[in-house]
Backbone:
């Protein structure tokens, strides 16, 4: 049965309120007027303090904004807002009243974005201050050319989430609502954007993936196991209704918010596109632990990498024919096995699959990263116990490494699999990579549907050839084909493949070029023409698949 949407609720405890439309409207107008935009903040802080803030280092921005906040309007107003929400510095209500005159400090408190400093703390912070109850920051993107069928050029938004570890004392709350982080933007950039009738954002958090989906999907369903996360998403969507093209009076026309675990809230439905940055962090399970003991933003509550395995196995069930799912994940690498052994064991035989491993770390580094992430490294005794628990947990499954990367799945509309790739790409790639991944899938489909030997091919514009030759040698020892864009692949060419590529000007078909090379290089005793043609055609197919060679327009 379809779950009810949550657009009836707007007042979830400990989350910003979205049932006060006049105040939301006032806040959007104030933030616009004060210039609280990505560019506005960057200009106020200057490049080095802005870059430090990006690394969660607040001190340079505190120094830069201190004098600006005491100075003249309008810089003083913007400085007050930046110090409040980005640097978590309590402010005099009067400073916020001046900076945000329609909303005022009182309105921010009503919206759940600010709270009065408690009596005991007031002396320390100065009398009658307010402090942020959430993070609220500008976020903007520009659509890449051709991105999304409803291509709008991009959007400028303000996004609320919980204050992060570097903005508040102590260990994070267990139901922490994550802001826009590195993993969020990795998935944003990896997503292949095309028009979708129905899209799903599984584990929406503050709603980041949903904002992008709304730009190229007719309807988006955002789910989460956390009611607070859905409340933040609802707030963010209504605060930015205009930029997201949502009618604040009828948001359900474009969006459903559903509470529940994994696919439970969408059982029986189908989507053209599913994106998920799931709680994939591998976490040692403790006997007797309750759901409330887990950091929901990163821990799905299952042992090992089971959450990612479960999603890879079950997501195809909610895809429409030809529908795709993209997610990020961690996977365990068992000692003595290749990294792709486990991912391969999850992928259903009737699903198109593409895994790209971007990084691999050992158990120690993994434990350090995630204990630090939730500020669990501040108490020495707790840190030692928690660190040991990670190592014991990995050792219990004979895990020697943990892989991180992106996963693309498709329910083939023709019923047969066309893509089955597991590859490791750890060097920097072009971002956003989504359009390049989309083009690669199209080329795989083209290869499956066409006779390559009859095709006329051209070398892609971003491809260069590199020849390495010992001084005085007659021929190059190594010939490399390099791709400047997208996944920036390098291909080591055999002599015959190099000859093939150099003849790809669209004039002759692939079969004709291979025939000419066979006449030129073959003819000697034991030469196997069939094997030669077949091996070369396979190598040519790989170059087409990876985008070094492209079918000429007539194909
Ligand atoms: C890593 S955060 C991703 C947030 C956001 N989508 C992004 O890209 O930054 C994972 C989200 O999944 C939610 N979550 C955790 N367990 C879940 C489950 N079993 N089913 C659905 N969502 C879950 C968390 O509450 C959290 O909001």
Residues:
């Amino acid at each position: 049965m379809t779950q009810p949407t949550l657009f009836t609720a707007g007042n979830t405890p400990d989350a910003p309120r979205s049932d006060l439309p006049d105040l939301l409207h006032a806040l959007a107008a104030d933030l616009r007027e004060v210039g609280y935009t990505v560019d506005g903040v960057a200009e106020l802080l200057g490049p080095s303090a802005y870059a430090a803030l990006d690394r969660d280092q607040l001190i340079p921005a505190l120094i830069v904004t201190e004098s600006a906040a005491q100075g003249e309007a309008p810089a003083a107003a913007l400085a007050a807002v930046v110090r409040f929400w980005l640097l978590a510095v309590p402010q005099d209500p009067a400073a916020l009243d001046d900076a945000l005159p329609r909303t005022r400090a009182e309105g921010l408190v009503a919206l759940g974005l600010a709270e009065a400093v408690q009596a005991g703390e007031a002396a320390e912070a100065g009398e009658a201050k307010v402090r942020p109850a959430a993070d609220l920051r500008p976020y903007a993107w520009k659509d890449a050319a051709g991105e999304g069928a409803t291509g709008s050029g991009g959007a400028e938004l303000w996004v609320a989430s919980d204050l992060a570890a570097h903005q508040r004392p102590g260990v994070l709350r267990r139901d922490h609502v994550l802001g826009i982080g590195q993993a969020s933007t990795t998935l944003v950039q990896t997503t292949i954007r095309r028009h979708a009738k129905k899209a799903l954002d599984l584990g929406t958090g503050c709603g980041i993936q949903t904002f992008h989906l709304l730009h190229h999907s007719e309807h988006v369903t955002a789910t989460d196991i956390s009611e607070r996360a859905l409340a933040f998403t609802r707030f963010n969507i209504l605060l930015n209704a205009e930029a997201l093209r949502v009618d604040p009076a009828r948001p359900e026309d474009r969006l459903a918010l559903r509470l529940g675990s994994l696919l439970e809230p969408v059982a029986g439905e189908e989507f053209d596109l599913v994106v998920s940055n799931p709680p994939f962090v591998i976490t040692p399970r403790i006997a007797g632990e309750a759901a409330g003991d887990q950091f929901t933003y990163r821990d799905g509550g299952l042992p090992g990498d089971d959450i990612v395995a479960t999603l890879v196995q079950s997501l195809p069930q909610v895809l429409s024919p030809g529908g795709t799912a993209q997610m990020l994940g961690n996977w365990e690498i068992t000692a003595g096995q290749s990294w792709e052994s486990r991912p391969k064991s999850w992928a259903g035989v009737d699903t198109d699959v593409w895994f790209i491993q971007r990084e691999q770390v050992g158990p120690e580094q993994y434990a350090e990263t995630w204990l630090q992430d939730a500020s669990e490294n501040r108490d020495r005794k707790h840190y030692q116990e928690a660190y040991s628990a990670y190592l014991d947990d990995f050792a219990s499954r004979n895990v020697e490494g943990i892989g991180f990367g992106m996963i693309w799945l498709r329910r083939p509309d023709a019923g047969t699999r066309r893509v089955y790739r597991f590859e490791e790409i750890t060097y920097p790639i072009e971002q956003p990579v989504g359009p390049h991944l989309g083009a690669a899938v199209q080329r795989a489909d083209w290869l499956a549907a066409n006779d390559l030997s009859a095709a006329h091919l051209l070398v892609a514009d971003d491809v260069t050839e590199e020849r390495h030759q010992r001084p005085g040698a007659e021929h190059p020892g190594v010939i490399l084909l390099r791709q400047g864009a997208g996944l920036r692949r390098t291909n080591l060419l055999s002599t015959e493949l190099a000859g093939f590529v150099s003849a790809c000007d669209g004039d002759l078909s692939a079969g004709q070029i291979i025939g000419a090379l066979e006449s030129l290089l073959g003819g000697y005793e034991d030469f196997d023409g069939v094997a030669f043609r077949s091996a070369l055609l396979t190598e040519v197919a790989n170059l087409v698949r990876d985008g070094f060679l492209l079918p000429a327009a007539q194909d």
The pocket of S-adenosylmethionine is lined by residues 178, 184, 187, 202-205, 208-209, 223-226, 229, 261-262, 277-279, 296-298, 300 (CB under 6 Å). The first strand starts at residue 114 and ends at 116. DSSP finds 19 helices and 18 strands in the chain.
